[in-house]
Amino acid sequence: MGAAQDRLVDGLYGLGWAAVKKLPEPAAVALGHRIADFAWRRRGKGVLRLESNLARVVPDAGPERLRELSRAGMRSYMRYWMESFRLPTMDPARFGTDVSLKDDHILKEAVASGRGVIVALPHLANWDLAGAWVTGHLGIPFTTVAERLKPESLYDRFVAYRESLGMEVLPHSGGAAFGTLARRLRAGGLICLVADRDLSASGVEVDFFGATARMPAGPALLAQQTGAALLPATLYYGDTPKLYGRIHPEVEVPATGTRTEKTAAMTQAVADAFAQGIADHPQDWHMLQRLWLDDLEERSA
To answer: Is the entire prediction scored with pTM above 0.85?
Structure first.
């Protein structure tokens, strides 16, 4: 991507961000549906990949069902963007009423214990809104990691946006993030990591909907190294404007085995929790990229 195209992409995001924030909520919802349906009808690479991924999640779905799911998936994905654009202007009081997480006492008790907490989430529904609920409603600051985007100015926009909501954001690239996360955990802090897609090519192989995928080792390694609680969380949209979800039970460090074996077992347990949430609400899984190893190998062949 050249410098001129970088500036264009950043400008378009900035324009959309500013415009959506000013729209009444019903108008923003309607606009999101129109954009999602337009993208879905075009049948681009992202939509086709989404359908391919959904076919693994819902293996008994025929072509018509998959198209319905992918259309709902694109609407869910665009809802994420519309909500996220509007989050900085949302009344913080709404975080307590617009977000409902089952078993949130698990998170609260783990944070209160002072041992540090790692929340691992998949790309389900709106993880930014869930983060705003943690900072704005529970009053708990946390640290997260963001994939570096191009152009750099676009990445800076996302960092500034998330920091405005009370999050500390570390760049994914570079080796410093792991050490900083470990220090936050040893101090009794909370970190939240989107962890259903490995960006390093050095993740852990897991069985995921009957095929092999690779997921980040970081959450399991951090839990072993710091003694922090590792809590998977899954989110979904209902028929109302609210965001729903669940805090899953702690993934404990196995009593025996090498570090590699413990990491593999813990990462598989996280993947199993993710699979449960995704299977229950497949239309809210925003995975428009290749994930399973045989799909990645197909691309590199």
So the answer is: yes
